[in-house]
Each structure stands twice: as structure tokens, then as C-alpha cells.
Design brief:
The two termini are 35 Å apart. The strands form 5 sheets. A 6-stranded antiparallel sheet has the order 12-13-14-15-11-16. The protein folds into 2 domains: 283 residues, 3-Layer(bba) Sandwich (FAD/NAD(P)-binding domain); 151 residues, Beta Barrel (Elongation Factor Tu (Ef-tu), domain 3). It is α+β, with helices and mostly antiparallel strands. The radius of gyration is 22 Å and the shape is globular. A hairpin with a 2-residue loop joins strand 3 and strand 4. It contains 13 helices and 18 strands.
């Protein structure tokens, strides 16, 4: 039985590489392709590459005993292919794992090309085979085509939910006025890899007034502007109050200016896009403004007065299923168990979470090909907590989620009372989660090796 993986973003290649290494023959489908010498793309993608990172280039924190770190540690123990590539293509980003997005995609393509068990098919899938002899992993991500969306809706018998995600602008490093900015990491955690653009109160007020007056981009036919609460455009945040941005993406706390010894009123952080450090993205500055207005507003940021923008902020659709109503704990459709879901389409949010569910789908698919019933990743683990949320959350108002400590099993009440320090509680939760994950991984009998990571 061949495993059919649909989607060449993050979850799809991870699922394909995992299943192939566990003995499966895989067909990997991707609709983005070169047609008559021209690229066929989605509204948000700029290339036909595997693993293109559309928004930021960060896979979040590598600080020990944080929730994103826990998830990545579990993935490393299971030999995640894409996380290994992320480690290999990492760029300095303080305590976060950020990658050179071009190298990241290139190495994913190399890994797929080097795997003889994977056959790449560059065409759009519009129909799903519900035959029990066909095993399909759907990982088409937030920009699932209209035709395939309609097919998924037909099979699931339920409506899709959708939120609208955003893309942060990227600036050319050559045009940043380095005399007006400084390098620092928040609270000096990790290396000082972020460029910080400090604002005093007058500069912040001027920036905010211009942002509130900026003209939004014209809504496209598919837009309803139902934003994901965890990734709001800066202009939406600004309308919630004059200090909202200062307590959000422009938070200055822990970013003391070494030149003055003072903490600025507000700070805009820039993060490296690649190892050459020739471009930077504006952290948390996703927006939905007209490009001309973006240029005017963003050039009010100290250090960016003469900025050259390599990419402006944009908005794009994010489609996902109502996972708690449709999926079992093995990421399979309850009514069609030969179809698995992974990535953002399954109801998780974030790069790392998408890769993690692709890893799981590949493991589960390999078990099914062997004629075995997959053993779900334990609830007590970080990845198990993530899957538990998307498969058990309240159906009404379900929204995708990132990995957080809120999803993990809480400590016993007696221990919570005894241990008041939050960091110590998190350390114990991580320790327990890793122990549970390692026990599960050993019991699967898979021979994919763990590795230490970056």
C-alpha cells in the first residue's frame, strides 16, 4: 500500500520523509509547480519550493523548559527530519530557533530527492479516495485550494472554519540606519541577535497616529477578516487602545538601550532572515495595509527612515477543519479512518506544531501500512497535549492553537501548593512530558534515531 501525502509545505514533507524511513512507499503531491515556464502559486506563496516559510522564519523558543522547547525536544527524540534541517540552517536569533528560509527549503528538497521511496507529483488533488485500500495524509495547510476544500467538506459533512493569518514585512539590511538602533536580546537571554529600534513617547505617538490613519488593503473576495486572536495585525491591535502595541509586539521590557542605560517607551525588533544577515523581518508586525501606506508608516520607525522593503505585510486565508468533531487521537477521520490530517489544516497553529503533527501522521501511517493499530502519543507529553486539545476541545468556537503550558497536564494540587515558583513547575512538567514521550517512542519499536539538536 502506497501512502498518499498531499501538501508540500511543512507537515507534508515531514510526514512523507518519516513514513518513507519507516518502510513506506510514498506519493507526495504539491499543487505549486512550474507550468509553461511560469510558477503556479497560491495567494501567499512566492515560490514552488517545499517547506516555504510564508510568515516569519522563527520556530520559536529554544530556552529550556519552555513549551516550544519541549515540543522540539520530543520531535528530536523521534528523529524529525525537518527539525534536523532547521537546526542545520539556523541563523542567530537569541534564544529562538530561526532559519535561513532559502537554505531550509533547499535542504528539504534535497532530502526528498535523496529518498527513493518518495515519488513527487506536481499536480493539484481535487478528489480524495475513500477506499479502505488507500491511505491518505492531508497536509495542504492554510491555503488549501477551493476545489480540495470542497472535497474535504463533502467527505467530512461539516463546514470549514477559517481565520485570516498575516505576513510580516522584510527590510533590506543595507538601508537600516545602524546609528539609531542597537543589538540586544530581551533580558539578555541568548546572544544579542535582534536589532532594536527604540522609540520615545513622542515618536511612538506619531507612529501610532499614522498607523491608525493608514488605509487598509482592499479586501479580496475570499476575505472576511475573521482574524486569529494569536496573530492580529498591528493596525487591529492599535485600535484596541493606545498602549496595546506597547504591551504587545512593541513591548520594551527587558530591552534596555546600552547606549543610554534606559528602557525605551516602545521598541520594534528586527530578526535576521538568513545567515548572510542581508535582510531582517519586523517581529510581530503583520498587517493588512496598502503597500504605499505601509511604507509611510514603517519609515516612521527610528532606523528605518530610508528603509527598502523586500516584502510588505500581507494577509492570507487559513483554512482548517473542526478537528474535535472530526478526528480521533490518531489524527484520522472518525468516519473515514484511511484519511489522516496534519499541519494547520488539522487545527494546530505554528511552524513547529505543523511539523510535529506531520511527524505523527507519518508514524501512524507506517503502523497502518504494517497492519497495526497506531498507539496514540501519550496525553502527558507535549505533543500528546497538543493533539489532545485539537481532538477534545469544545467544538463551538474552536480555534487553532500553539503549544502552551495551558495544554499540558497540570501538576497535582498538593504539588502546586508546595511549589510556588512558576519556572520550577514548568521544569517538572517538561521533565514528566519528556519521560512520557520517550516511553511511548521506545514502545513503538521504530528505529528512527534521536539526536541532540542545534
Amino acid at each position: 500500500m502506497r501512502v498518499r501525502v498531499i501538501g508540500g509545505g511543512l507537515a507534508g514533507p515531514e510526514a512523507a520523509l518519516t513514513a518513507a524511513r519507516l518502510g513506506c512507499q510514498v506519493d507526495l503531491y504539491e499543487m505549486r509547480a512550474m507550468v509553461d515556464g511560469q510558477p503556479r502559486l497560491t495567494p501567499a506563496h512566492q515560490t514552488t519550493d517545499f517547506g516555504e516559510l510564508v510568515c516569519s522564519n522563527s520556530l520559536k523558543s529554544e530556552s529550556p523548559n519552555t513549551a516550544p522547547w519541549l515540543l522540539k525536544q520530543e520531535m528530536r527524540r523521534a528523529g524529525s527530519a525537518l527539525l534536523r534541517i532547521a537546526d542545520e540552517t539556523a541563523v542567530p536569533a537569541g534564544h529562538a530557533l530561526a532559519v535561513d528560509r532559502v537554505e531550509f527549503s533547499r535542504l528539504i528538497a534535497e532530502a526528498i530527492a535523496a529518498e527513493p521511496a518518495i515519488r513527487v507529483i506536481r499536480e493539484e488533488v481535487t478528489q480524495l479516495d475513500t477506499d479502505a485500500d488507500t491511505l491518505t495524509i492531508l497536509a495542504t495547510g492554510p491555503l488549501t485550494s477551493d476545489a480540495l476544500s470542497a472535497e474535504i467538506q463533502r467527505i467530512t459533512g461539516s463546514d470549514h472554519l477559517a481565520f485570516y493569518d498575516s505576513i510580516s514585512p522584510i527590510v533590506d539590511a543595507e538601508f537600516i540606519d545602524m546609528d539609531r538602533v542597537y543589538f540586544a536580546a530581551r533580558w539578555d537571554k541568548g546572544t544579542a541577535d535582534y536589532i532594536n529600534c527604540p522609540m520615545n513617547r513622542a515618536e511612538y505617538d506619531c507612529f501610532l497616529d499614522a498607523l491608525l490613519a493608514a488605509e487598509p488593503a482592499e479586501a479580496r473576495e475570499w476575505e472576511k477578516l475573521d482574524y486569529f486572536e494569536g496573530c492580529l495585525p498591528i493596525e487591529v491591535l492599535a485600535r484596541r487602545g493606545r498602549d496595546t502595541l506597547r504591551f504587545g509586539p512593541m513591548k520594551p521590557v527587558g530591552l534596555r538601550d546600552p547606549r543610554t542605560g534606559q528602557t525605551p517607551w516602545a521598541v520594534v525588533q528586527l530578526r535576521k532572515e538568513n545567515l548572510r544577515a542581508d535582510s531582517y523581518n519586523l517581529v510581530g508586525f503583520q498587517n493588512h495595509l496598502k503597500f504605499a501606506d505601509q511604507a509611510k508608516v514603517l519609515r516612521l520607525i527610528p532606523g528605518l527612515e530610508g528603509a527598502r522593503f523586500l516584502r510588505y505585510g500581507q494577509i492570507h486565508r487559513n483554512t482548517y477543519i473542526c478537528a474535535p468533531a472530526l478526528l480521533d487521537e490518531n489524527l484520522r477521520l472518525k468516519k473515514q479512518p484511511n484519511i489522516l490530517f496534519a499541519g494547520q489544516l488539522s487545527g494546530v497553529e505554528g511552524y513547529t506544531e505543523s511539523i510535529a503533527t506531520g511527524l505523527l501522521a507519518g508514524i501512524y501511517a507506517a503502523a497502518l501500512v504494517r497492519g497495526e493499530e497506531p498507539v496514540p502519543v501519550p496525553r502527558a507529553s507535549g505533543l500528546g497535549s497538543l493533539v489532545h486539545y485539537i481532538t477534545h476541545a469544545d467544538v463551538k468556537g474552536f480555534q487553532p492553537v500553539n503549544i502552551t503550558f495551558d495544554l499540558l497536564e497540570p501538576l497535582e494540587e498538593e504539588m502546586r501548593k508546595k511549589i510556588r515558583d512558576k519556572k520550577e513547575r514548568h521544569r517538572i512538567q517538561c521533565e514528566r512530558a519528556l519521560e512520557a514521550f520517550e516511553g511511548w517512542w521506545s514502545a513503538t519499536g521504530n528505529d528512527q534515531p534521536a539526536y541532540a539538536g542545534g
